[in-house]
Design a protein that fits this description.
- The protein is α+β, with helices and mostly antiparallel strands.
- It contains two helices and three strands.
- The chain starts with a strand and ends with a strand.
């Protein structure tokens, strides 16, 4: 199981996600970034890099 806490990238955000794979966790991160933080599609490669750096084993 993998885990990502948005606060590791966006201080103050309380969202956290768990998923069995990194790919699923990145998908959750993209959706969250778009809906909660207003990130547009062109920003997604940067979101993937930031989320990937903050993923850890749960």
């Amino acid at each position: 199981m993998k885990q990502f806490d948005c606060a590791d990238v966006v201080p103050g955000c309380g969202a956290g996600f768990r998923a069995p794979t990194v790919a699923e966790l990145l998908a959750h991160g993209r959706l969250h970034a778009a809906h909660a933080h207003g990130k547009a599609e062109p920003d997604m490669p940067a979101v993937d890099v930031a989320v990937s750096a903050a993923i850890r084993d749960a």
